[in-house]
Design goal:
- The protein has 472 residues and is an alpha/beta fold.
- It is built from 15 helices and 26 strands.
- Helix content is 34%, strand content 24%.
- It has a 5-stranded parallel β-sheet with strand order 5-2-1-9-21. Strands 22-23-26-25-24 form a 5-stranded antiparallel β-sheet, with helices on both faces. The protein has a 4-stranded parallel β-sheet with strand order 13-12-11-17, with helices on one face.
- The N and C termini lie far apart (86 Å).
- 42% of the residues are buried.
- The mean pLDDT is 95.
Length: 472
């Protein structure tokens, strides 16, 4: 078969851009297809705008403590149109990194249209057919809207239109206590909105329960209200929304944000006709991210698996290596990190204590170091939180952190979990003082302390001391 390209990538988000750019930089002829905005979810509706909003809210929160450390600040004056401008300025500043022009400069043919598979080698796009020996599906995900009675008759927000608001919500009702719901709840509360979060189960369910409790208490202290229950019906109109809950309560607000999760964006790709297997969470893939049609890959949010921007980039890199060099690249999520950017932040890498106990039972050991004992945290007057490190023997298999900038402390744990560094080396490292990262060294050393100061080292130290006395 004569092919028009070496590889075809459908989707211009984090996964697709990484895969397409990697293949093009190796000199392959690549078609990159994107019908919507270049940069995908993260740039336009996810990571970038949400972190910009959180940054604005943090500035407001600092000013709400009028006198601290002997310094008095004026009360914040919030112009939400200015917040909106900051959000979109951040998107505009980063957009060139993901732009059509940049990927054309790399050597990609960028096609801005909808695509559908014709067979395992051919794609129909923009009224033409193109073909390649390898095809990569990277079509991302979209907000999951649950079947709440009346939801289609009221104006509701998701992350796709939340950042288009030019006026601050009076009372934002959030259905869903996951990452998006919790981050946006704190941010809008700090910007002056009333906020109620409705969640039927555990808040931030995949994170360590003790760590989540620290965040929840901080958010309650700031005025966020939490309601336990399932949203079963909504009614009302613009500026006046009412949510009925299965516990008999109802919550009235001005705006409704639905943040209960995401689903794979795979409609219209013609997957069934080509024979690509799908499941409840998206396209079914193996550990090399190959679909049931093995020359077609699915990476990022469109396949079943973790949905994180850095995971999408990682999978894009792996697939680019497979396609260009022919080297099988299996995913390894033993040191998968994630972070919820509330204040304090909740960060996780590897196994949580709960998951570690389910997998290894009593073979694990948990070491906890608190920021109450970290001198940088004490000097900053912000010592809430801890690092909980999970060991199997002396090997780190997971770490759960909560505290200011906890996400920034994950990198060394990645090295420890993957075996690229040892807990002994970390425990004996020289770390700049005073820094919050000292908590990592303290936890690593704690695992070795019984060995270092154990029975035999003490006997040896006594022997050496006696010899010195004898021959001095």
């Amino acid at each position: 078969m004569k092919f028009t390209h070496d590889a075809i990538v459908i989707g211009g988000g984090a996964a697709g851009l990484t895969a397409a750019g990697g293949c093009a930089l190796f000199g392959l002829k690549v078609a990159l297809i994107e019908a919507g905005e270049m940069g995908g979810e993260c740039l336009n509706h996810g990571c970038v705008p949400s972190k910009a909003l959180i940054t604005a809210s943090r500035r407001a929160a600092e000013a709400r403590e009028p006198t601290r450390f002997g310094v008095t600040l004026a009360a914040p004056q919030i112009d939400y149109s200015g917040v909106h401008m900051h959000i979109h300025d951040a998107i505009a500043a980063i957009a060139p990194h993901d732009s059509q022009e940049r990927f054309e400069e790399m050597g990609c043919e960028v096609i801005r249209d909808h695509a559908r598979l014709v067979d395992k080698h051919r794609v129909e796009v923009g009224g033409r057919q193109i073909s390649a020996p390898r095809i990569v599906l990277a079509t991302g995900s979209k907000p999951l809207v649950p079947p709440i009675e009346g939801i289609e008759s009221v104006p509701y927000l998701t992350n796709e239109n939340l950042f288009d608001l030019t006026e601050r919500p009076g009372h934002l009702v959030i259905v869903g206590g996951g990452v998006i719901g919790m981050e946006m709840a704190q941010a809008f509360r700090r910007l002056g909105s009333e906020v109620t979060v409705i969640e039927p189960e555990a808040l931030l369910a995949r994170d360590d329960r003790e760590n989540v409790a620290v965040v929840v208490e901080a958010m309650k202290a700031e005025g966020v209200r939490f309601v336990t229950g399932l949203a079963k019906g909504v009614s009302g109109g613009p500026g006046a929304i009412s949510v009925a809950i299965d516990n008999g309560e109802s919550v009235d607000g001005t705006h409704l944000l639905v943040a209960v999760g995401r689903k794979a964006n795979i409609d219209g790709l013609n997957l069934e006709a080509v024979g690509i297997e799908t499941g409840r969470d998206g396209i079914v893939v193996d550990d090399r991210r190959r679909t049931s049609v093995t020359n077609i890959y699915a990476i990022g949010d469109c396949r079943a698996g973790p949905r994180l921007t850095h995971v999408s980039g990682y999978e894009g890199s792996n697939v680019a290596l497979e396609i260009t060099l022919g080297l099988p690249a299996k995913v390894d999520y033993s040191a998968l990190p994630w972070c919820t950017f509330t204040e304090p932040e909740v960060a996780q890498i590897g196994l949580t204590e709960k998951d570690a106990r389910a997998k290894h039972g009593d073979a694990i050991r948990v070491v906890t170091e608190t920021f109450h004992d970290n001198e940088r945290a004490l000097a900053e007057g912000n010592d809430a939180g801890r690092a909980k490190v999970i060991f199997k023997g002396k090997k780190v298999i997971g770490a759960s952190l909560v505290g200011r900038n906890a996400g920034e402390l994950l990198l060394p744990y990645s090295q420890l979990i993957t075996g690229k560094a040892s807990s002994f080396a970390m425990g004996s490292a020289i770390i700049a003082y005073p820094t919050r990262s000292e908590i990592t060294k303290a936890a690593a050393f704690a695992a070795w302390e019984p060995t270092v100061f154990g029975k035999w080292p003490k006997k040896w130290a006594r022997f050496v001391s006696n010899m010195r006395k004898r021959f001095a």
